[in-house]
Design brief:
Elements (H helix, E strand, L loop, with lengths): L2 H4 L18 H14 L2 E5 L6 E2 L5 E2 L4 E2 L2 E5 L2 E10 L16 E8 L6 E5 L12 E6 L10 E7 L2
Antiparallel strand pairs: 1-2, 1-5, 3-4, 6-7, 6-9, 7-8, 9-10
Bound molecules: zinc ion.
């Protein structure tokens, strides 16, 4: 087979914007409003197993119980897992290349049973360790989305 026969062509179909909105629901709204207006993190407690989840959701997945009890959580927690991203890529949420390096972690907030995923500050990488204590740093201008938490920073606690 000649090289010309193996040539594969691709064609672009242009660019299209597809803006969309969706409801974050009853508990999602409460969570984001409290975060935006009072820099507070809300969780929700299961009436059966007593587990607390963040962000709040309607149903406890292990016991299928409907949850109604919102609880205020600490803005401090423990870093359970993390990664440091060093290769740039196009952020699907913004469509632009995110500057690297940056950190992303699973944080177990105090008083909560599940982990919360967010950016972590890696300014001093020597402090970024599994089990490190972290604290939320809130954005100055909050808009009612998860980026109202700028990132979690390592703290001596
Ligand atoms: Zn439960």
């Amino acid at each position: 087979m000649s090289e010309k026969e193996m040539e594969l062509l691709t064609k672009g179909s242009g660019e299209a914007e597809q803006p969309f909105r969706y409801s974050v629901g009853r508990w999602g709204s409460k969570f984001l409003i409290e975060l935006r207006d009072h820099k507070k993190l809300l969780g929700i407690r299961c009436p059966k197993c007593q587990k607390v989840y963040v962000p709040p959701r309607q149903v406890c997945s292990p016991c299928f119980q409907r949850m109604e009890e919102l609880v205020e959580l600490s803005d401090k927690g423990t870093l359970m897992a993390f990664t440091i991203i060093r290769f740039s890529f196009i952020d699907p949420e913004t469509g632009i290349t995110r500057p690297v390096p940056y950190g992303y972690g699973f944080i177990k907030l105090d008083g909560c049973d599940n982990s919360f995923q967010h950016f972590i500050n890696i300014e001093d990488e020597s402090k970024v360790k599994i089990g490190a204590r972290v604290q939320a740093v809130f954005s100055e201008e909050r808009k009612g989305n998860l980026m109202d938490i700028k990132y979690f920073e390592m703290i001596d606690d």
